[in-house]
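Protocol step 4 of 6: structure prediction from sequence.
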Amino acid sequence: MKRLLLGYGFAILNRLQTHSGRTAVGTIGLMSILGAAGGVWLGQAAISPQAAHAYTSRVSLFLTRELNERYTTLIRRAEITARAGAQRSFDADLLVTEVIITVVGENQGISVPILTLQATREQWRNRPEPQYWSTYYPDARELLGVPEAESLDPDASPPQTPGQIAPIF
């Protein structure tokens, strides 16, 4: 192998001779420096490969409001969907260090973000609760055109008595 490399080096040297028979010393010096630098770079790449780059997974998920569905039920479905999306993102790719899941609600052709879940892998591992990591958009109900009180939902909780505060999800 050394013989082959030496032979190759002499071939290059012969090509670098000027018309007067002298070698172009500056060109040989430049080639030596570039060759040495390339060898060092190649050696470093072989010894320690480049580190993997972590990144953030951004996902938008869409939920269509069912006929006569209460807004609180839509919020519960959005939380379940966000939880599944976050878990799926972390499970699918080990390089994902953070997820941002935006759940968009749709009603009669109008689409509005309902909530955004943002958590790092470590946070999610310690506390996989979408309610804790989610930001809720309070005006989404009005923008979607969902009435405040709808009693046709089969999951509907009993009507609130005056003075009680309905839970906010």
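Step 5 (inspection) to follow. Residues 55-144 form one domain.
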